[in-house]
């Protein structure tokens, strides 16, 4: 399997953490696509992913799978023992719902803030910016943090009692929020406790060590 990504990117982090959770990191070859140079908007990359975003998984038969959720789903069921995306229909439904919610309410909102209300990837990549929209999305992300704080007051993990793809999605949002210096409000204690807990997982520690090493 090949993964096209940018090693320290927040969305790529979701797939790298999922790979580590599944013990699949040694089976993957990583190909670096330089976001800061805008390589993801060039025709060669757009041929791999119409949306021009990372990461993209390419299977050995050439099949291309983009979108973190779709890639994680694929990786999780490969061994016939899904541990991240649910075993029962209800678990699967809840995990997908909460994963999407972590994207809509936090991670994607932080991303829009980054691309529209900060210099983002620089003027040669950010050809259109709408600062007002970006700032609205920053406020949406802050509301999202408060929502997830409420969720995490009621249960240990985002979609229930077990760590899942939804936790990885929320963690991706937190990684992005930290990069753009958008801290989780101090009073969101449940969210902070959850973050401390998931940060102890070997998959997350390994990701952080990899990023620290490459900077
Ligand atoms: N919905 C996509 C997914 O889930 O995979 C979003 C992917 C995404 O936005 N990836 C970022 C990207 O390609 C990578 S990173 O910023 O997290 O490193 N951004 C570039 C751009 O121009 O939007």
UniProtKB/TrEMBL annotation:
Transmembrane segments: none annotated. Residues 1-83 form the GST N-terminal domain. It holds the Pfam family GST_C. Signal peptide: none annotated. PROSITE patterns: GST_CTER, GST_NTER. InterPro entries: Glutathione-S-Trfase_C-like, Glutathione-S-Trfase_C_sf, Glutathione_S-Trfase, Glutathione_S-Trfase_N, GST_C, Gtt2-like_C, Gtt2-like_N, Thioredoxin-like_sf. Residues 88-215 form the GST C-terminal domain. This is Glutathione S-transferase.
């Amino acid at each position: 399997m090949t993964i096209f990504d940018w090693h320290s990117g927040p969305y790529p982090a979701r797939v790298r953490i999922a790979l580590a959770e599944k013990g699949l990191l040694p089976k993957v070859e990583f190909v670096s696509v330089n976001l800061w140079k805008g390589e993801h908007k060039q025709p060669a990359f757009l041929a791999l992913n119409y949306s021009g975003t990372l990461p993209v998984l390419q299977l050995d038969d050439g099949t291309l799978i983009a979108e973190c959720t779709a890639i994680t789903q694929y990786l999780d069921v490969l061994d016939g023992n899904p541990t991240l995306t649910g075993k029962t229909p209800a678990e699967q439904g809840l995990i997908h719902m909460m994963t999407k919610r972590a994207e809509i309410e936090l991670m994607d909102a932080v991303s829009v803030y980054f691309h529209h209300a900060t210099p983002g990837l620089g003027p040669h990549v950010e050809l259109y910016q709408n600062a007002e929209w970006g700032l609205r999305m920053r406020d949406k992300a802050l509301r999202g943090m408060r929502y997830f704080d409420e969720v995490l007051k009621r249960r240990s993990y985002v979609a229930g009692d077990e760590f899942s793809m939804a936790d990885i999605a929320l963690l991706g949002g937190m990684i992005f929020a930290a990069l753009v210096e958008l801290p989780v409000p101090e009073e969101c204690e449940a969210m902070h406790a959850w973050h401390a807990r998931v940060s102890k997982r070997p998959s997350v520690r390994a990701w952080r060590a990899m990023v620290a090493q490459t900077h």
